[in-house]
């Protein structure tokens, strides 16, 4: 199983980016996914999670209303649309997937809930 994250870059405050996470070796639509980020000197934190069907989605308080998770089953890819970006959103962003279809509101932000991780993509928000 491989997850390939992409779409990061440098953006000005207030701008937008869309991160992609393409999977090989499993069909993402059957498994819960998560997006995490890690800033220098900080622990990895959960940003967004979704069940396999994307019927259930979760967001951290810091990104709620600005970030949206979605998936394209044909492309076997999940996305994280990030709007109204702030300097504090600067971090390496990781996608991950679990071998269960639904993690729920307690488990989704925990790194131990996930079995496979992408390599990370850098997002820098700066003027």
What is the structure about, briefly put?
The protein has 127 residues and is mainly beta. The protein has 1 helix and 11 strands, in the order E-E-E-E-E-E-E-E-E-H-E-E.
Number of strands: 11
- Class derived from helix and strand content: mainly beta
> What is the 3D form?
globular
Termini gap: 37 Å
The SSE order reads EEEEEEEEEHEE
Q: Determine the strand fraction and express it as a percent band.
A: 35-45%
Helix content: under 10%
Q: What's the alpha carbon Rg, rounded to whole Å?
A: 13 Å
Note the main sheet: 7 strands, mixed
Mean pLDDT: 95
Tell me the number of helical segments per DSSP (H or I, 4 or more residues long): 1
Describe the structure.
- This protein is mainly beta and 127 residues long.
- It contains one helix and eleven strands.
- The strands form two sheets. Strands 2, 4, 5, 6, 9, 10 and 11 form a seven-stranded mixed beta sheet that branches. A four-stranded antiparallel beta sheet has the order 1-3-8-7, with no helix packed on it.
- A hairpin with a 4-residue loop joins strand 7 and strand 8.
- The longest helix has 4 residues.
- The model has no long low-confidence stretch (mean pLDDT 95).
């Amino acid at each position: 199983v491989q997850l390939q994250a992409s779409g990061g870059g440098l953006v000005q405050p207030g701008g937008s980016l869309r991160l992609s996470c393409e999977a090989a070796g499993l069909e993402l639509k059957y498994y819960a996914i998560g997006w995490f980020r890690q800033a220098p000197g900080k622990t990895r934190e959960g940003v967004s999670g979704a069940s396999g069907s994307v019927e259930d989605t979760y967001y951290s308080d810091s990104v709620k209303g600005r970030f949206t998770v979605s998936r394209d089953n044909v492309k076997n890819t999940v996305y994280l649309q990030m709007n109204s970006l702030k300097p504090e959103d600067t971090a390496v962003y990781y996608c991950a997937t679990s071998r269960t279809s639904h993690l729920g509101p307690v488990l989704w932000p925990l790194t131990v809930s996930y079995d496979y991780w992408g390599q990370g993509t850098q997002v820098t928000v700066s003027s």
